[in-house]
Amino acid sequence: MTGGTLPEVVWDVVTRSGFVVVANRMPVDEVSPATTPSPAAVAAGSAALRPLPASGREWRRSPGGLVTALHPVLVARGGTWVGWAGGVGEPPEPFELEGVRLHPVRLDSVDLERYYEGQSNASIWPLYHDAVETPVYRRRWRESYREVNARFAAAAAEVAAPGATVWVQDYQLQLVPAMLREQRPDLRIGFFLHIPFPPIELFMQLPGRAEVLNGLLGADLIGFQQKLAAQNFVRLARHLLGLRYRGQTVKVEHREVKAGAFPISIDVAEMEQLAANPAVQARAKQIRAELGDPVTVVLGVDRLDYTKGIELRLKAFRELLAEGRLAVPDTVMVQVATPSRERVEHYQTLRIRVEREVGRINGEFGRVGVPAVHYLHQSYSRTELAALYCAADVMMVTPLRDGMNLVAKEYVAARADTGGALVLSEFAGAATELRQAFLCNPYDPEAVKETLLRAVHVPPPEAARRIRAMQRHLRSHDVDQWARNFLAELGS
Ligand code: ADP
Ligand code: G6P
User: Is 194 tagged catalytic?
Assistant: First the structure.
C-alpha cells in the first residue's frame, strides 16, 4: 500500500463479514492540518495523498508495526477492518481499500486525550514495556478506555456475520473480547497482543487489573509474541482470579481459553521485491552519494519512542567518535525517527533529549556540510525505507524492550545482496529468532559500543553468512504464516 494510489470506494450499507479485524488504528490515517507531512517527506514520497471522493478527506499509511503486519493479511484474505480513522469527531462512512472493508470508529477529542494518549499510551504502554518510563494512572482515563472499548465491541458486533471470526488487536482494546462475547456468543474471538506482556509483579500495579484480565479472557485464543508472555498470562489468571490452567489453557466457567506464542513477522516477499527494484537500488546509491560516500553508513529507523533505545544508540556513537574508534566522514549515522504520540509528555521529553544529543554530536564532530548524524523526524514511503535499508552497512535496533521489532526483519529481508550487519537488542522479541544478528544488552553502554564496532568491522563473508541464515528463517516465518498459525489454532 502506498499513498497516492488508494483505490477507495465509498461503502455505505453495513455488509457483514466472516472475518473481522478490530484494531485501534485502521491501515490508513486521516491527515489533519496538524499532521500534514513536511514538504521534504512528501518529496520523498511518504505521503502523497488523494482525498476520498465523497469526503475531501486526505489519507496516508498509519504508523507502526501492527499495520505493516496486518495489512497484507487482510488484503490476501479479504474481510472488514474496524478501527479509528485518525481524526476526531464524525468518522468517514465505511469504505473499501484494496479489497478490505474499512469500518471507522469515532473518537472525539476527549477520547483521544483519555483513552488513547492517557490509558493506552501513558498507563499501559510504559507498564507493559518493563516500566522503562513511569506509568501514569488516572481514573477518568480508565473510564474512557472502558467506553471506547465498548464502542469498538459494538462496531465489531455490527459488522460480524453469524459465526464469524473476529480478531481483536493489541493493548488499546483489551476489554473488547469479553464485551463482544457478551453481545455475540456465536463468534470465534481471537486476541493478539503486539507488545510485551509484563511479569505478574508489574501487571499487578495496574489499577483495574482484574477488569483487563477478564476482558482478555473473553477471547477463545490469546496470542503473544513470546512463550514467556503466554506463561506469564496463564499464571496471572491463577494468581489474580484463582482460575485453573493446564499447559497454556485456562478454564473460565464452562469455556476454555488458550494462550500461545505467535511471533509476528513481515511480508518478506514484498520487502524482497521492493529492495530488488532497480529504482530502489539506484536510490540507495544516491542516498550514499548524498551522505558523501562514507565507508560506513549506520542506520536507525524507529518511531520516536522511549522504548526504542534511540538515545543510548546516539550516545554509543558519540563516545566511539570521542574515543577515535570511529571517525567522521568515514562513518556517518542516519537516524529516522517517525513522529509518534506527540501530545504525550513522555514523548515530548524524549524528543527534546534526542534532539539535544543529535545537536551535541554534530556540534562536536560534524564539519560544514558533513554532519555526523543525519536526523530525520519524518515518515517515509516503503520505497524510501527499502532504499535506506539497502544503503546502510550497519542497522542498529536497540530497544530497551520491544514486543517484536519489524524494522529488524525488514532490514534482513531487504539485503538480498547479503551485505549489511544487524545490531540487535536482546530485549527485542526479534532476538529470539534472528540469532545471527550482533546481539547486545542495550543497558550496557560498553557492550553496545563493542557490538557496533564488531558489526562495522565484520568481514564480508561472515556478514553474508549471518544475513543468509536470518533470511532463510524469515522466508519460512513470514506474516502470512503467522496469521495462518493463529487462525488455525483459533479453529477458523
Ligand atoms: P513499532 O510497531 O513499535 O513502531 P516495529 O519496528 O515493529 O515498531 O514497526 C515499525 C514499522 O513502521 C515498520 O514496518 C517500519 O518500516 C515502519 N516505519 C518506521 N519508521 C518509519 C518512517 N519514518 N516512515 C514510514 N514507516 C516507518
Ligand atoms: C505499536 C503498537 C500499535 C500501534 C503502533 C503505532 O506498533 O503495537 O498498536 O498502532 O505502535 O502507534 P500509534 O499510537 O501511532 O497507533
Answer: yes
Residues 272 and 258 in one domain: no
Ligand 2: centre distance to CA 64 (Å): 5
Give the number of the ligand closest to the Cα of residue 65: 1
* One domain for residues 245 and 277: no
- At 388, which CATH number? 3.40.50.2000
Cα separation, 362 vs 359, in Å, equals 5
| Antiparallel, parallel or unpaired: β 28-30 and 59-61 | antiparallel
Query: Do 371 and 272 lie in a common domain?
Result: yes
> Comparing 59-68, 158-167, 228-237, which segment has the lowest mean pLDDT?
59-68
Ligand 2: residue whose CA is nearest its atom 5: 64
Q: Are residues 30 and 120 in the same domain?
A: yes
Burial class (CB in 10 A: 0-12, 13-18, 19+), 163: exposed
- Identify the residue whose C-alpha is closest to ligand 2 atom 12: 64
pLDDT, position 53: 44
Q: Of residues 103, 194, 346, 477, which has the active-site annotation?
A: 194
Residues 75, 194: one domain? yes
Residue 193 structural domain: 17-264+482-490
- Write down the pTM of the prediction: 0.94
What pLDDT digit, counting tens, does each position of 419-467 carry? 999 999 999 999 999 999 999 999 999 999 999 999 999 999 999 999 9
